[in-house]
Amino acid sequence: MNGRDFPCGAKALAGRLDAYFDECAAGGRKPTVNGLCLAAGITPAKMLSLLRAYDSGETPPDFPEVQVRVLKTGQMRLCDYLEQQSDSMSILKAKQPCYCGYSDRPASGGGDGAVRVVLRMDGANPGE
After folding, report:
1. Cα–Cα distance between 34 and 123 in angstroms, integer?
2. Rounded to an integer, what distance in angstroms lies between the CA atom of residue 23 and that of residue 29?
3. Counting Cβ atoms within 10 Å, is residue 121 exposed (0-12), middle (13-18) or buried (19+)?
4. pLDDT tens by residue, 88-114
5. CA 101, CA 92: separation in Å to the nearest integer?
6. Which residues contact residue 89 at a Cβ distance below 8 angstroms, ignoring those fewer than 6 apart?
7. Nearest-5° angle of CA 37, CA 43, CA 44?
8. What is the CB neighbour count within 10 angstroms for residue 1?
9. CA dihedral defined by 15, 16, 21, 25, rounded to 10 degrees?
């Protein structure tokens, strides 16, 4: 799929996503990435590749940037919704790259992953 094949323009896409979120709220359903993609008319894999390219500063070839920004807004609304929830499924979803990509572990800074512990027996404070 390229921008010429995209099912609708940016305004129509924003309307579709708004309607999806409104439908979820009215029906008591939780919004999902798959639902967001169904509303947008693209696959989850395509959405993820577009958003990754956008987040890294690239403009996807043959795909209008304005539509990618609308998709990014939809993803951010989905993340905002998940952040407001406290059930374990919402927490697990928020950790998935296609949702928010949060991590409860610090990123590896290289090295061997070892923890360094400094034990001083002379009473000196290492912060001084």
Report:
1. 58
2. 8
3. exposed
4. 777 777 677 666 666 666 656 555 666
5. 10
6. none
7. 70
8. 13
9. 90
